[in-house]
Specification:
Layout lengths: L1 H6 L5 H33 L4 H50 L2 H4 L4 H23 L1 H19 L1 H48 L1 H6 L3 H26 L2 H25 L5 H42 L20 E8 L10 E8 L4 E6 L5 H8 L7 E6 L2 E2 L5 H7 E4 L8 E2 H5 L8 H10 L3 H5 L8 E2 L8 H13 L5 E5 L7 H14 L4 E5 L11 E6 L2 E6 L1 H7 L1 H12 L7 H7 L1
Parallel strand pairs: 3-10, 3-11, 6-9, 9-10
Antiparallel strand pairs: 1-2, 1-4, 4-5, 7-8, 11-12
Helix pairs in contact: 2-3, 2-6, 2-11, 3-5, 3-11, 5-7, 5-11, 6-7, 6-11, 7-9, 7-10, 7-11, 10-11, 15-17, 19-20
């Protein structure tokens, strides 16, 4: 973990080294100032020598100003290095998340990833800044102060040594208890962020089902548990203050009692006793800073493991060595393919799929919920890897192809495609950043989106809100289809991507695709037979297995399941997932 974190300090290493150097110089001056104060008292004020008062006073002022300058420089360099370190960590996490396969994303919750990139990185940033300043200042200050006390009076220094040992023992016990609580705090942050993310994303569903109170309770429960954990941790941390006060005041009383006797007997001067009072506060403030550092390091150790886990996560799907970027056409072959989700039950979602599609063909896929439709098409662009068998595009195994080239050649409009905040034109150019306005308009005409865009106040410059909330479901689907077309793919996959469109619009889109993209392999997944009946071939999936393969006419004549679906949808407009149909299949 530490090696990975160290590597991400990057170009900020110089600043990270300069910060403790300035702290070291600052501490040196801070430790000398009380000693100069004792000289001012003993050789100036006590003997009535104004010249010495002015001399030592000027020296103290100069040392204080220099200490201030050094402290500012230490703060500036530590802030620069710690914020840069945090930026590097977030960049590394985000870059690796972008490389994640779907199977990797399945391992982490969205809320958990948000927590790692925000709270956990903030903890590491604060800990790194403490390491550069407080963790350097505290031991130096304490050791130097104890050294000065020993120099002034060895016998009196025993008071500090005993007190410091007692306080260190108490702080260790407190820190050990706090560490266990903070480990739970970070996990609870994940839960809280997940609740917030789900609620904000699905706010329309929440309101439609009048579930605001239910969601409020979920949030309050998560926030309350987080509060309780923090109260417990802060309650333990609060013990620092009374214990510290007890030790400090005990030392002051002991120092006053024994010091007064030594002053009276002439073994200690008034100025030396005064400086020792300053050093005692410095010693115990250093111990208090030590406790802060250890608590922060304890929190950041848990955060560091979580951050490094994401940074070092090796994606399940990576580019092969000497990857092939040449994909000649849109031919697709499933060679005895079986597939199971990595984090699932271990059962196959697809069983022995043997399917061969010629380039330029239009293929329809139909099947009930959970039949494996989306799993099948996710294998084409290698969003997941097969468990057995092979998937080939353009006559080449997808595992041998360059991922960028493969996904540029296979354009997928998923069921849950989203639009991003920005203009319609900016959203369309996600498919091709170099696309001209004319190309965007042409793609929108094929997707039957140009007409409603033209009616908007600002046309293609109309702003889309986050998630496409200011357009209808059907409009959003058509914009996503247009965006996919701009990639100029060799394979176009529409995963139930016209489900929110009416039948006439669905028919117009299919007609335009057939006329304009006759050289592109098209795979249309739909719950409606009317959307796929004109396809060159239709695949019927049931429980992850091929249940039928052929033309619409062939399947009506030879596949009972397909015939049953057709009858339900034509006789009473029944849905494919209708309960009566399911009972008939059982």
């Amino acid at each position: 973990m530490f090696k990975t974190l160290y590597q991400h300090i990057g170009k900020y290493k110089t600043a990270a080294l300069l910060a403790p150097v300035f702290v070291l110089l600052e501490v040196g001056l801070d430790v000398l100032i009380p000693y100069v104060t004792s000289l001012l008292i003993d050789h100036g004020i006590t003997v009535g020598n104004l010249e010495n008062v002015y001399t030592y006073g000027a020296i103290m002022l100069g040392m204080a100003l220099m200490s201030l300058f050094l402290g500012i420089q230490a703060g500036r360099f530590s802030a620069f290095a710690s914020t840069g370190f945090a930026c590097n960590l977030r960049r590394a996490m985000y870059r690796n998340i972008q490389r994640f396969a779907f199977s990797d994303i399945d391992q982490y919750s969205t809320g958990g990833l948000v927590t790692r990139m925000t709270t956990d990185v903030n903890n590491l940033q604060n800990a790194f800044q403490m390491l550069m300043r407080i963790s350097v200042r505290a031991p130096l200050s304490m050791v130097s102060s104890i050294g000065m006390c020993l120099f002034i009076s060895g016998r009196m220094s025993l008071i500090f040594v005993v007190a410091a040992l007692f306080l260190s023992l108490v702080l260790v016990l407190i820190i050990r208890s706090v560490a266990r609580v903070f480990a739970k705090v970070l996990k609870q942050y994940d839960a809280l962020n997940t609740v917030v993310q789900e609620n904000v994303t699905a706010v329309r569903v929440v309101k439609a089902f009048v579930r605001e109170e239910h969601e409020n309770k979920k949030f309050i429960d998560a926030a309350s548990l987080l509060r309780k954990l923090y109260v417990r941790a802060e309650g333990l941390m609060a013990l620092n203050s009374p214990v510290m006060n007890l030790v400090v005041y005990s030392c002051i009383i002991a120092l006053s009692w024994f010091g007064a006797k030594l002053v009276v007997s002439g073994q200690l001067t008034t100025g030396q006793l005064t400086s020792m009072f300053t050093y005692i506060m410095s010693i115990f403030m250093s111990l208090m800073m030590f406790s802060m550092v250890f608590v922060q390091l304890t929190m950041s150790a848990a955060s560091g493991r979580r951050v490094v886990e994401v940074i070092n996560e090796v994606p399940d799907i990576t580019n092969p060595e000497n990857a092939d970027s040449d994909i000649p056409d849109g031919r697709i072959d499933f060679n005895n393919v079986s597939f199971a989700y990595k984090g699932g039950s271990g059962e196959y979602a697809l069983h022995a799929i043997d399917l061969h599609i010629d380039s330029g063909q239009t293929i329809g896929i139909i099947g009930g919920t959970g039949s494996g439709k989306s799993s099948l098409i996710n294998l084409i662009s290698r969003l997941y890897d097969v468990s057995r068998g092979s998937v080939m595009v353009g006559g080449k195994d997808v595992r041998s192809l360059d991922l960028t080239a493969l996904r540029a050649s296979v354009s997928v409009v998923l069921q849950k495609n989203v639009l991003f905040s920005g203009t319609i034109l900016e959203n369309l150019r996600w498919g091709n950043p170099e696309a001209s306005r004319e190309e965007c308009e042409q793609a929108c005409r094929i997707a039957c989106a140009h007409e409603f865009i033209a009616q908007m106040p600002h046309g293609y410059d109309t702003r889309i809100e986050q998630g496409g909330t200011n357009v209808s479901g059907g409009q959003r689907q058509r914009l996503c289809i247009a965006r996919a077309l701009l990639k100029k793919p060799k394979v176009l996959v529409l995963d139930d991507s016209t489900s929110a469109c009416d039948n006439d619009t669905d028919r117009l889109i299919r007609s335009a695709l057939a006329q304009q993209l006759n050289n592109v392999t098209k795979i249309i997944i739909s719950q409606r037979i009317s959307s796929i009946k004109d396809c060159d071939r239709i695949l019927v999936l049931n429980n992850g297995r091929m249940h039928g393969w052929g033309t619409h006419k062939d399947l009506l004549n030879g596949n009972n399941l397909y015939k049953e679906i057709y009858s339900l949808q034509n006789d009473d407009s029944g849905d494919f997932d209708d309960s009566t149909r399911k009972e008939g299949m059982a």
